[in-house]
Amino acid sequence: MIAAEKDPVPTGWKMSPRSVRTYICGGKVGRTKITPKYIGHERLVEIAISTLVTDRALLLIGEPGTAKSWLSEHLCAAINGDSTKVIQGTAGTTEEQLRYSWNYAMLLAQGPSEAAMLKSPVFTAMETGSIARMEEISRCASEVQDALISILSEKRISVPELNTEIAAKKGFSVIATANTRDKGVNDMSAALKRRFNIVVLPAPADLESEMEIVRTRVAQLSAGLDLNSALPEDETVQKVCTIFRELRCGETCDRSQKVKGTSGVLSTAEAISLLCNSMALAGSFGSGEISDDDLAAALQGAIIKDEDKDAVAWKEYLEHVMKKRGSKWSGLYKACRDLA
Amino acid sequence: MNHPHIFGIRHLSPAGAWHLKNFLTEKNPKLVLVEGPCDFDDILPWFADAAVQPPIAVLAYTKDAPVRTILYPFAEYSPEYQAILWCHENKKKCRFIDLPSEVFLALPEHAPGAKAADSGEEERMNVYALLDKQAGEDGHETFWERTMEHTKDTEGYRRGAALFGSELRALEDDSETDRPEILVREAFMRRKIAEAVAEGFAPEEIVVVTGSYHVAGLLDEQAEAMTDKELASLPRLEASHTLMPYSYYRLSTRAGYGAGNRAPAYYALLWEAIGRGDLSYTARCYLSRIAGYQRTHGNPVSSAQVIEAVQLAAALAKLRGGSGIPALRDLRDAAVTCLGGGSFSELTLATADTEIGTAIGSLPDGVSRTSIQDDFYRKLKELKLEKYRGITQQELALDLRENRNVSSQAAAFLDLHRSFFLHRLRVLGVSFAAAAAARQDNATWAEHWSVRWTPEAEIELVEAALKGDTIAQAASFCMKERVEQAPNMGEAAKVIEDAFACGMTEAAAYATAALQAMAVDAASVADLASVANSLSVILKYGDIRQLDSRPLIPILQQIFFRACLILPGECICDDEASKTMAGAMEKLNSAALAHDFLDVASWNEALREVAERDDLNTKLSGYAMAIRLERSLADGEALRLEVGRRLSRGIPAELGAGWFEGLAMKNRYALIARLSLWESLDEYLEMLDDEEFKRALIFLRRAFADFTAMEKDSIAENLGEIWGYNGQEVSEALNSELGGKEKELVESLDAFDFDF
C-alpha cells in the first residue's frame, strides 16, 4: 500500500489518510484486496483518522467489547507501522510510567544522565514523532490523568534533573481508550476530555455486520490456535449473534417483542470468544463440529454471569422467544433447557 | 429550430442561484422563463419589492370547499427567486411557464386523501433511495452538496445539473411514477416557450429556468408542444393564489427534491459564503453558531474547541477528495466530536437551531394577499400584537377590565379587543393562539393565551378566506354554519358562548333565535340545564366584555321554566341516570340563585314535589330535600318528619339508604351539625334486622364514601353524643388502635360483598 500511495502523506505518517482508511475498512489497492479490519461504522474511522491528521489526540469511548483497543492498535499500525508504544492503564499506573523513570543503580552511580533515564512510551513517541497508545485511561488514578493534560496541551516533557526538555516532533499524538460504564473507573475531568476529540464506538448496527465481524474474527483466531474443529456454520453464528443482540437491546430483532436484558454487556467480542470456546470444546472433547450441547454450555456460561437475575432472564428468553422460533432452533432450545 | 438556453436547477440550491445569476449576466437574455404556474405572473413584481423578506411562498387554493392547496416556497437562495430579481434589476421580462395552478389543483394527487399520491410519493422515494446507494456516503443530499454546491464553475454546474436530471429520468423510466403529469407539464412548458418565440423573441434571447429533471424533456426534439385542444381538455378547478410569509422550519419539514431542504439555515449560510466568494466561511460560521448556542444555553464551549472542530471538518472533507470544502455532514460530525463529547444528543438543539433556524419571511402591507390576511395583519398592528408574530411560542396574559390609566377608549379596552380577536381566530380554526388553562379560579377578567405564528396558521387563514373578507365576517359565517348544523341545544348554546367570547352580538342573536326554535322541541332536563348554565354564565360575567347580554334573558327564562315543569317527571329514573340528573338540578339551582328574573317560585315548587313524592328515584328526592334545606325552604322539623318517613321500617333498606345518600350530597356541614338527623338515622338503624341492615350498609357506605376523614370523625362524635359519650372520649376511641375483638369484627366484614 505504501508503494501504491498517490495522495500526500502527512509528516511522520507512513501513508496518506485515505490509505489508512482503506487499510482499516478494506478496499482495493491496485489489484490487491485489502481485508477490512474494522467492520461497520466507516464514518467513525474517518473521524478518527481526521482527528489524528489535525494533530489532535483521540479518545475512543465505548462499552467493553466494541473494538476500541482493536481500532486503536490498527490505527497506529497503519499510521506508524508500529503499534507497540502502549501504556496499559490500571489503578496502579504511576505518573513515572507516563513520563520517564530512572535506572536507580545507574542514577546512584553516575548521577542523572540520559543513559540512566527510562523513557516511557509517550516519551519515545514524542521523540520519534509517532503515536502513543494509552489503554483504559479511565482506570488510571486522577493524578495520572492530570499528568496527561499538560503533556497533551504543551506537547513537551521537561526533565528538570537534566535541565532540559524535549518537545514532540510533528506526528506525535495519543490514542486513548476508555470505558465509561464499568466498575472501578474514574471519571475523566473536563480539562482532560477537552484535550481529546471523542469518538464513541457503538455496538454493530445490524445483525449482518455483527455476523460478518464474528465470522471473520473466529476464522482468524482459530487459525492461530489449532482448535482441531471445523469453523462454525453460518447458522450457528447467526444464532449466537441473534441471541446476543436481542439480550443486549432488550427486544427481538424484528422488534415485535420485548426481552428482559441481562446484567452483562454481551459484546461482539464475547460472541467471538464464545464461538472459539465451543470450537475448543468440540475439537478436544467432541466430534470436531460444534453441537447444540457445546453451544448451549458456552451460551449459558457467557450469559449468566453471577447474578440470579441473569438466570431468570435467560430462562424467560428460552421459553418466550427461543421456544417459538421453530424447528431450526429446537435442538439448541432443548440443549439449553436441559442445562438451565 | 434553435433551442433557447435552458438552465437546469435544483430548487433551493444556493450554488444554483449563484451560477444562474452569472449565467444570466453572461447571456443577457431579453426574456427569462421560470418554472412555476403561469397564472402567478401577476405577483411577479412583488418578489422584487424591497420590503419582501424571504422565505415566502405562493399559495394556490381552490375557491370552493373542500379547499385544496399547493405551495411554492421560495428562499433567498432559490434560483427561481434570484432569476426573478435579476430580471427586475436589469429591466428584462420574466414569466412563469408551468401549468396554471387551477390545473394543478385539479390533478387527482392534490385531492385530499388521494391514494394515488401516496404511492407516487413512495416510488419517488424509492428512486432517491437508489440514488442514495449509488452516491455512497450517506445519501444524495451530501453527494449533491459535495459535487454541486461547492462547484465554482458556472458551466460545470449547468452541465452537471442537466446530467443529474437526465440520469434521474433514466432511473425513473422503468417505474410508472407520475410520468403522465410530467409529460403534460413539459408539453405545456414547450407551448409557452413556442409562444414566446412566436412573439418575436429569438430563441437565443430566452433563458428557461427549470428543474434539472425537465431539461432533457424540454430539449427532446420529438416531443410536441401542447395544442389548444389538449389544453382545453385539462381538468380545472376555480382557483386563486396569494403570497404568504413562510418559515425555514416549514421548509425543512418538507425536505425532498422539490419543495424543501433539510437544513434551510445552513443553506442560507452557504449562500452567504458563495456571495463572499469564500466557501470556507460556512464552516467557521456554522461551528461558531453551534458553540454560541451551547454557551447561551449553559454549556461552556471554548474558542479552542471551535478551532479544532473547523480543522477536523476540513480534514474530513479532504479525506473525501474533491474541493476539500466541508459539507454539512463533515461539519456536523466535527461538531459532535469536538464540541459534543462524541454524542449527538448533546447537540441536538444546537444543530436544529443552526441548521433549520427560526427565520420567517415577511411581506409589506398590501402585498397581494387575500383580504382576510390583510385584515389579520391590520388587526395585529392595531392591537399591538405584532411582536407575537414569531415562530417561538409566547405567552400572553390578558386583563379584560378597563384600564383606567389611559386616555383613549381603544387603549382602555385593548386587552378586551385582543381577546375578541384571538377568540375569533379560535372559532375560525386558525392555530395562531391557543387558550391556556386559567391559572386563577374565578378570575373571569383574566385570560391566558399561548401565541405562535406558523405557516400552517397562515394557510388556515387563507382557507378561511372562503368564509368572509374579514376575520369578523368569517367567524360570524363559521358560527352561523355551526348553528345550522347543531345537532342539539348544547351545541347551539356553545355557539352563543363563542359569539360572546368573540364580541359578536349579532351572531349571538342568530344563535339565540336558533336555540329558541330548538327549545320548543322535546329536550331532556339534562340538556336544558346545561344550556341554562351556559347562558347563566354569560349573563353573570358578560359585563366584563362590555356586551349587552339582555337579549338572552327571555330564552333563559323559557328554558328554565320548561326544565322546572318536566323535572319531577324525569326524576323517575335508575341510579345510573340519577347522577346526571343531580348535576342538572345543581345547575338549575345555581341559575335560580343567580338571576332574580327567573321564575324561582316554579323552581321551588318543582323541588318540593321531587322532595315529597314517593314514586321518584329516592336519591333525587333526597337531593331535592338537601337543596330545600340549604335554601331554608324546609326547616329542621320538616327534615325530622321526612327522615322518619323515608327511613321507616317497611321501606326497603336500599331505598332508605339511597335517599340518605342523596341528602348527603349537598351541604354536608349543615347536615353534620343537625343532631336531630343523626338521632333519626340511629333510630332507623336500630330498627332494622340483620338482613335489612346488611342491605342498608351498602348504600350507607356509598353515601359516606366521599366524606373526608374529619367529617366522618365529627359524625362519629355526633353519634357518640347521642349514645351518651362526650366528644373527648369518642375521639380517643376513634384514634386508638383497634382491639382484638374489633379487629375480628372488621375482618369478618372482608367476606361481605359490598358491591351488592
**Quantity of strands of chain A, as a count:** 11
The percent range for helix content of chain A is 40-55%
Largest interface, with counts of residues having CB < 8 Å to the other chain, equals: A-B, 20 and 20 residues
Could you tell me how far the N terminus lies from the C terminus of chain B, measured between alpha carbons in angstroms?
Answer: 95 Å
Number of helices of chain A: 14
The biggest sheet of chain B amounts to: 4 strands, parallel
Order of helices and strands of chain A: HEEHEHEHEHEHEHEEEHEHHHHHH
Strand order of the largest sheet of chain B: 1-6-2-5
Oligomer: heterodimer
Coarse morphology of chain A: elongated
Q: What is the average per-residue confidence, as pLDDT of chain B, rounded to a whole number?
A: 78
Radius of gyration of chain A (CA) equals: 23 Å
Radius of gyration computed on alpha carbons of chain B:
37 Å
Structural class of chain B: alpha/beta
Q: What is the straight-line distance between the termini of chain A?
A: 51 Å
Shape of chain B: elongated
Q: What's the number of helices of chain B?
A: 36
Mean pLDDT, all residues of chain A: 83
How much beta of chain A, percentage-wise? Answer: 5-15%
Unreliable spans of chain B are 111-123
Q: What profile does the largest beta sheet of chain A have? A: 5 strands, parallel
Your description of this structure?
The complex is a heterodimer of chains A (340) and B (756). Chain A is elongated and about 75 Å long. Chain A has 340 residues and is α/β, with parallel strands linked by helices. The model of chain A has no long low-confidence stretch (mean pLDDT 83). Chain A contains 14 helices and eleven strands. The longest helix of chain A is centred in the middle third of the chain and has 19 residues. Chain B is α/β, with parallel strands linked by helices. Chain B is 60% helix and 8% strand. Chain B is built from 36 helices and ten strands. In chain B, the strands form three sheets. Chain B has a four-stranded parallel sheet with strand order 1-6-2-5, sandwiched between helices. In chain B, strands 4-3-7 form a three-stranded antiparallel sheet. In chain B, helix 25 packs parallel to helix 27 and helix 26 packs parallel to helix 28. Chain B is elongated and about 110 Å long. About 2% of the residues of chain B have low confidence. Chains A and B meet through helix 1, helix 2 and strand 11 of A and helix 14 and helix 15 of B.
